[in-house]
Automatic annotation (TrEMBL):
The gene is cysL_1. It comes from the Bacteria. It comes from Vibrio hippocampi. This is HTH-type transcriptional regulator CysL. The keyword Transcription applies. Belongs to the LysR transcriptional regulatory family. PROSITE patterns: HTH_LYSR (PS50931). PANTHER family: HTH-TYPE TRANSCRIPTIONAL REGULATOR, LYSR FAMILY TRANSCRIPTIONAL REGULATOR. Pfam families: HTH_1, LysR_substrate. Transmembrane segments: none annotated. Gene3D superfamilies: Periplasmic binding protein-like II, Winged helix-like DNA-binding domain superfamily/Winged helix DNA-binding domain. The keyword Transport does not apply. InterPro entries: LysR_HTH_N, LysR_subst-bd, WH-like_DNA-bd_sf, WH_DNA-bd_sf. Residues 1-60 form the HTH lysR-type domain. Keywords: DNA-binding, Transcription, Transcription regulation.
Length: 298
């Protein structure tokens, strides 16, 4: 083996940041030492790992091939080091990307469980759309994703965490709020505010309604659920949101769940991770504790 872990760490940091200077800062190396390590690695492997685009570095075909393998080696090396220094193996940082509904209603409880039982673990959390989380996993920005709905990318593993459903809601003063049921023709006449394209909620809603209503009057699209709830509560709009996001507003009388017999919008919240990822005890721990948490809630 002619290459070193340091050279793989340099390669990995440049792949993550797209920049030699940023990689040097991350690794506490000089820029010249970082450039030299990469040059030595490329010379030994006999292949260019990056395509230089000015100061930006984009992975070459060979770099894309090497990246998951380098990640696994570096992760294994970290676990060996922690073991010999007698550190708890469930320590270190786990980067999670979660879509809005689980991030607001489920992930805080999960993090509290982890903090209590595994205090040496650090969890960083970013809230993004389902599409952004999938892209982030594939680009190594996250170790674990928590999404709404399905992911059909063969490069991603998926495990159901729990179930939820979407519901169409209106304000208590909306004309539809007093009806025992609402027809598809009435939905077609309504003015809608919805989640943006790329969100799991929007994907499920669109797939459920597109074959029932040809032309829905979508007035506004927003990323943030509180904006949609407020617009519906104070206006003449309809929206479709996860029940977890509207449950307490329905119970308080601010919003009314409309009965639309034709619409059945069950969905799952799932853990997702890269299929080629090496076994990661932190990921396994969070998945295990998440499933245990749901079992106790039932």
């Amino acid at each position: 083996m002619r290459y070193s872990l340091k050279q793989l760490a340099v390669f990995d940091a440049i792949a993550d940041t797209g920049s030699v200077s940023q990689a040097a800062d991350r690794l506490s190396l000089t820029q010249s030492a970082t450039s030299m390590s990469l040059a030595q690695l490329e010379k030994m492997l006999g292949r260019p790992l990056f395509e230089r685009q000015g100061k930006q570095m984009a992975l070459s075909h060979w770099g894309v091939w090497l990246r998951p393998k380098a990640k696994r080696l570096l992760q294994d090396a970290q676990q060996i080091e922690m073991g010999f220094y007698e550190q708890h193996l469930l320590s270190g940082e786990l980067k999670i990307g979660a879509s809005q509904t689980p991030a607001e209603h489920l992930v805080p409880d999960l993090i509290s469980v982890i903090d209590n039982d595994f205090p040496e673990m650090r969890i960083s959390l970013q809230v993004r759309s389902t599409d952004s989380i999938i892209d982030g996993l594939l680009d190594y920005k996250y170790d674990l994703g928590i999404i709404e709905g399905r992911c059909d990318d063969h490069r991603i593993n998926q495990e159901t965490w729990c179930s939820d459903h979407l519901t169409v809601v209106a304000a208590a003063h909306h004309p539809f709020a007093q009806r025992d049921k609402v027809s598809l023709a009435q939905l077609e006449q309504a003015r809608w505010v919805l989640r943006e394209h790329g969100s799991g909620t929007r994907a499920i809603f669109d797939s459920s309604i597109h074959h029932l209503i040809a032309d829905l009057d979508v007035w506004r699209e927003y990323e943030h659920v509180p904006v949609l709830r407020s617009m519906v509560s104070n206006g003449q709009y309809l929206t479709c949101l996860p029940y977890l996001d509207v449950e307490r507003f329905i119970e308080s009388g601010q919003l009314v769940a409309l009965n639309v017999p034709e619409l059945k919008m069950e969905r799952t919240l799932s853990f997702i991770w890269r299929a080629d990822m090496a076994e990661n005890p932190l990921v396994e721990c969070v998945r295990r504790e998440g499933l245990r948490m749901m079992k106790h809630k039932r």
